[in-house]
Amino acid sequence: MADPKQPAPSQDNVNPGTARLQIGNEVFDLPIRRDSIGDARIVDITGLFQRAGVMTYDVGYTSTAGTESAITYIDGDKGILLYRGYPIEEIANGSYMETAYLLLKGELPTSEQLKAFEADIVSRMPVHEQLLSILDRHKRDTHPMALVSSMVTDLSGFHSDIDTSKPEGRYEVALNLIAKIPTIVAAAQRYSQGKPVIRPSSQLGYSENFLRMCFADASGHYVQNDVLTKAMDRVFILHADHEQNASTSTVRLAGSTGTEPYAALSAGVAALWGPAHGGANEAVLKMLKGIGTVDKIPEFIAAVKVKGGETKLMGFGHRVYKNFDPRANIIKADCDSVLAGLGVSNPLLEVAKELERIALSDPYFKDRKLYPNVDFYSGIILSAMKFPVQMFTPLFALARTSGWIAQWQEMVNAPKLTIGRPRQNYTGPEQRPYPAIETRGPNGDSARGTLTGGVDAPKRATDVA
Ligand code: CMC
């Protein structure tokens, strides 16, 4: 989007499909790429360093596309999210199995294809008993994200017979991961609760199976509830993919080295855990509980607005959405219907709605274009479904597995796999002699000589004039 404070670009004879970079007297013409929809312009700097010794600097990759992808499209200004071209509002009325099929294969299944796909997935849901025994090595109160991450990596040992050098083998890995992650996540929940692990049933669908593995009694008895199953499926659909977010980029970066796909996925689980990303759903519920009642909201909002303060309005803000997150709108509406369907109430829903109302009318949030994201309301639904708060992020990981592995598959099936390797703007010491240990001062400097670099060394990082 054009910045009104910046001078308009000069209208010389530059080809509209070309960007011109001028450094001193040197001029470099760079091709401009376009998305298949929308009006974003992507300046292709591939090879610029080799050609011209020039790098770009973009902390947090706010203006950098690291890959092509045909899976998910977001227009953050308009609040649009498409999976393979289909709006999230419409896809959310289908099933998670349909979404997983779409993400992996690019097109929606027929009803026969969907049935066969789900049957294939369900048949792969059991995991090796030895994988489950890994749990016993962990402390009971280990965060379930750590348990999930360990078990996902360890899957590689149980499926080393699959040849991932061929697309068919990669697809099989994708099916395995989508199938086994519910079993792993449910096992992590039950281990944390000190309950025996429940194995999947070949008689149930994907989400029903998962809910049974989480909530059945020790003998495996579980009463199905359609409201719960539908709500679970919707949560999974809404979290399934979100283009090149931090965890997906982590999966791609790890996968670009040719590592085991299970290990790449596990890296994604680790990246998702952080409160700025998938860990936000857990943080939101803790925040809402901390606020407690509607009358405490103004005090909380005031703390968020303190410059340099530590309090954040969790579940608000997004790197890409600068309007609203369409997933948040869907989940907010689902909160009312799911709570009513389950016959439960949650006073935190009132706190959340009022918090949203107050924040959206406050200039601090309006000026910074901060809106509720998917995590703001999801915790209310997951609590109503009786998931422990620590399970919120593992549930996100379960759902995102289809997106992660679809993105991995897209990357490794491309004609060329390029290892991801960002460059840096070095700000450390200049080259200096290595001093003998007995000559070093308390700050690591040498008694014999002066530092030529270190914290006081002249830095050129900001020399951008
Ligand atoms: N509460 C208060 N202030 C905020 C918040 C927030 N949640 N988010 C951003 N800001 C402020 C930030 O302090 C900065 O203010 P200033 O310009 O005065 O320094 C301004 O808004 C711009 O923020 P930013 O940190 O530069 O934005 P970002 O794109 O780097 O970060 C974010 C995006 C999602 C990490 C951030 O908004 C955040 O931490 N939100 C809370 C955590 C959260 O809900 N995460 C879930 C994201 S959606 C699920 C997913 O896809 O993982």
Strand and helix layout:
Layout: E1 18-23, E2 26-34, E3 41-43, H1 48-52, E4 72-75, E5 80-83, E6 86-87, H2 88-91, H3 96-105, H4 111-123, H5 129-133, H6 144-158, H7 167-192, H8 206-215, H9 226-239, H10 246-255, H11 261-272, H12 280-291, H13 297-304, H14 326-342, H15 347-360, H16 363-367, H17 374-384, H18 392-413
Antiparallel strand pairs: 1-2, 2-3, 4-5, 5-6
Helix pairs in contact: 3-18, 4-7, 6-7, 6-11, 7-8, 7-18, 9-14, 9-17, 9-18, 10-11, 10-18, 11-18, 12-17, 14-17
Which fold name is given in CATH as the topology of the largest domain?
Citrate Synthase, domain 1
Give the overall shape.
globular
Q: In oligomeric terms, what are we looking at?
A: single chain
Number of helices: 18
Given helix and strand content, the structural type is mainly alpha
In short:
46% of the residues lie in helices and 6% in strands. It is mostly helical.
Overview of the molecule:
The protein has 18 helices and 6 strands. With 465 residues, the protein is mostly helical. It folds into 4 domains: 18-65, Single Sheet (Rubrerythrin, domain 2), CATH 2.20.28; 80-276 and 400-413, Citrate Synthase, domain 1 (Orthogonal Bundle), CATH 1.10.580; 280-383, Cytochrome P450-Terp, domain 2 (Cytochrome p450-Terp, domain 2), CATH 1.10.230; 429-465, no CATH class. The strands form 2 sheets. It has a 3-stranded antiparallel β-sheet, with no helix packed on it. A 3-stranded antiparallel β-sheet has the order 4-5-6. It is globular. The two termini are 23 Å apart. Mean pLDDT is 92; it is low at 1-9 and 449-458. The protein binds carboxymethyl coenzyme *A (CMC). Carboxymethyl coenzyme *A binds next to α17.
